[in-house]
Amino acid sequence: MGDQQLLRNPDIEPTSVVLADALGSANAAYIKFIEGMKSYDIGVDWRYYNDGKAWLGKGLYQWTGVRGGQKEVTAFWLGVWDGFFKVTIFIPEKARSIASHLPVNDDIQNKISESNQMGKLKFFPLTFDINSDELFNDIYTLANFRKTLK
Description:
Layout: H1 16-23, H2 27-38, E1 42-49, E2 54-64, E3 70-81, E4 84-92, H3 96-99, H4 106-114, E5 123-130, H5 136-148
């Protein structure tokens, strides 16, 4: 797999055609991933971010609050690379002990216990390079957990 992040032109929006071209053989996994997230009421909002000079997909869980206002929580971030996509889920440090009891595979359990907090931010990242559906169930579990941490 290459290590080059794609979708860097702010004028070229990540349509399904642009995404398919960038992802190549990983496009089928991407489509399946996005479809699977819908069953958790998590959609993807694409935006161009100047700080990283790239388009990123923000996995959003949105709901209407008790007073009628729109609320949202970011369940994950998605970036497109040469032949794969990266999904990063930021778990609050205070929820690490709960996350360590989620029904995910041992490699991910190790990531949860060993991941370092990000500087002064009270979160630790879990990042996955994806070109197949092998880890989808575990990632869905983590994203669904993240959305509950409003």
